[in-house]
Amino acid sequence: MSAYADRLIEAVRRKDTPLCVGLDPFTDRIPALFGDAREDTSAVLKFGASIIEIAQQHAAVLKPQLGLFEQFGEMGYATARLLTEQARGAGMIVLLDAKRGDIGTTAEGYARATLGPKPGFDADCVTVNPYMGLDTLEPFLSVAERASKGVAVLVRTSNPGAGDVQDLQVGGAPVWRRVGEMLSGATQRLKGVSGWSGLMAVAGATYPEEARALREVMPDALFLVPGYGAQGASAADAVAGFVTKPKGLEGGVVSSSRAVLYPQAAQAAKNMSEWRAAIGDAMAAAAAELRAACAR
Amino acid sequence: MSAYADRLIEAVRRKDTPLCVGLDPFTDRIPALFGDAREDTSAVLKFGASIIEIAQQHAAVLKPQLGLFEQFGEMGYATARLLTEQARGAGMIVLLDAKRGDIGTTAEGYARATLGPKPGFDADCVTVNPYMGLDTLEPFLSVAERASKGVAVLVRTSNPGAGDVQDLQVGGAPVWRRVGEMLSGATQRLKGVSGWSGLMAVAGATYPEEARALREVMPDALFLVPGYGAQGASAADAVAGFVTKPKGLEGGVVSSSRAVLYPQAAQAAKNMSEWRAAIGDAMAAAAAELRAACAR
Questions:
Q1: How far B196 CA lies from chain A's nearest CA (Å)?
Q2: Tell me, what's the pLDDT at B272?
Q3: 3-state SS of chain A: helix, strand, coil percent to 5?
Q4: CB contacts, 8 Å: A169 with chain B
């Protein structure tokens, strides 16, 4: 199989948009059309399945947010796995947003659980936390190398408190920059023939200046950019860390969740066909907005 | 209900040992007596259930390592939840080692999943990663405050690469020390009448000097000390961050996994009664060794 980075960048080029649909099941926002998600995980499964059917037309990548599935216990966990299977079967690339990180054998367990085949998720890529050190990333990198998968490391996140630890100054540079520098060996290991690496960096859209600075440190890493849409960043901010290529900007994917899952028109839909149309419109708009931001 | 910190310290005093049994299911070490753990999660469930029956006699606290359950998919996840229920039913305090961490609503999802009632784990405490900032800990703290639970934050971990990020120097002090300082507000919020706080700090036994230094920064935090036993730290190292009280040292729990789950005598056991005796001996020895280390 091709390297994950090559598969990802090729799929993004084919869709001509870096849009990544974030799959965040909020119990109180999933429309009653699917059943009551507060009572029944089958409503979450039906909602997710319908989202994927529409998303596959507009985006190359799906990002299930595992924490929002885990709130439903093991049934939620199983639901996330089934939806991962559906999306991959439909040709989407699945980036599992699990933010795992642990030592030695436990990290191996998480790597198997997220990137490994059944009973694992068999996701294409997983988000991991670097706080515990490079040795804790190794089990993920090693599975990724063997199975043509990717690893997305939290470097500079998009939340208001992101700077508490990430911006601490170490010899004149913030911690997040040191983390980026530390990842250069791992980045080389997951490099594809496209020149891009499957060692992705999570770089929040709410901090475009920092995404640009991080790009200097990590020239080959594909970026996973959260925070576009509901978290307030513009499409231009979201692609700030991308690089100029003959066909425009490229260098990662940009995730949108709430704006494409729960747009007002979909929340007001009276039947499934109105709901489908509203979701399709929201995804098409996000895909187009990001396409335009890259075409310069 | 009493504050988590009070329940924990009282339970440790009653058992007269800070031993915390780490529940780490390794597929290739679970004895064939329980079935083949590589094929069937019911072997993991039976093994875990038997471990808890013995552990409740020797230790106040159980620490299931969620990553090693997740490698079995949703059935593993469910197994960890059932074992948590069993251990709490038997009066043990369950510290779920999940090392979660995410932003806003996703962190709320993880907080519900780990500390919340069914379909959550309803664990007494959960381990969390501080890299994403204080706002990402808030949902856990808020559930902990409401439900008399605890939150154990990774500060200085026990693995070889722990220093990659945690030891970066920020104005003359390492990142882990800054993280400890940042947690003082949270520590106050989870303080019990015992004077101890349910905001626990994960402080690796393999770095006793650092546990002592961290104690100065976090005088009221209970420590969760991993790395004792198989990871090479001595009992004296493990309690290095504890403080002197009239009855000896106290201030947290010390986790042992491999040494009490897979001692040689248990691996060689020919039947269940030999296995039970071997596990009981290993746990009694660990409990006694830590008791002795505290009695000074």
A1: 25
A2: 98
A3: 50, 20, 30
A4: 170-171
Res. B11 pLDDT band, cuts 50 70 90: very high
pLDDT per residue as tens digits for the range B259-278:
999 999 999 999 999 999 99
Assess whether pLDDT exceeds 70 at residue A270.
yes
Confidence of residue A231 (pLDDT cuts 50, 70, 90): low
Considering only alpha carbons, which residue of chain B is nearest residue A169?
Answer: B170
Looking at 1.10.287.3610, 3.30.200.20, 3.40.228.10, 3.20.20.70, the CATH number of the domain B4-294 comes to 3.20.20.70
Q: What CA–CA distance (Å, rounded) separates B241 from B225? A: 9
Give which of A65, A68, A69, A71 to mutate to test B binding, by max B Cβ within 10 Å. Answer: A71
Q: What angle do CA A106, A110, A112 make, to 5 degrees?
A: 110
Q: What are the beta bridge partners of residue A245?
A: A248
**Residue A161 confidence (pLDDT):** 95
Average of pLDDT values for B242-265? Answer: 96
Cβ distance A132 to B178 less than 8 Å, yes or no, reads: no
Task: Give the closest of A26, A132, A178 to B105, CB-based.
Answer: A26
The pLDDT of residue B28 is above 80: yes
Q: List all residues of chain B from 224 to 263 with a beta carbon under 8 Å from chain A.
A: none
Q: For A122, which residue in chain B has the nearest alpha carbon?
A: B73
SS (H, E, C) chain B: CCCHHHHHHHHHHHHCCCEEEEECCCCCCCCHHHCCCCCCHHHHHHHHHHHHHHHHHHCCEEEEEHHHHHCCHHHHHHHHHHHHHHHHHCCCEEEEEEEECCCHHHHHHHHHHHHCCCCCCCCCEEEECCCCCHHHCHHHHHHHHHHCCEEEEEEECCCHHHHHHHCCEECCEEHHHHHHHHCHHHHHHCECCCCCEEEEEEECCCCHHHHHHHHHHCCCEEEEECCECCCCECHHHHCCCCEEECCEEECEEEEECHHHHCCHHHHCCCCHHHHHHHHHHHHHHHHHHHHHHHCC
* Residue A228: band (very low, low, confident or very high) from pLDDT cuts 50, 70, 90: confident
Rounded to 5°, the CA angle B49-B54-B56 comes to 95
pLDDT band at A230 (very low <50, low <70, confident <90, very high): low
Establish whether this prediction's ipTM goes over 0.90.
yes
Residues 127-166 of B with CB under 8 A from A: 129-136, 154, 157-166
**Which residues of chain B are within 8 Å of residue A166 when distances are taken between CB atoms?**
131-133
Euclidean distance between CA atoms B27 and B242, whole angstroms: 34
Show Cβ contacts of residue B110 under 8 Å, excluding neighbours closer than 6 positions.
A67, A70, A71, B98, B100, B101, B102, B126, B139, B140
Q: Where exactly are the structural domains of chain B?
A: 4-294
**Residue environment code for B89-116, b if the CB has 16+ CB neighbours within 10 A, otherwise e:** eeebbbbbbbbbbbbebbbbbbbbbbbb
Distance CA B155, CA B162 (A): 10
Contact (CB<8Å) B73/A119: yes
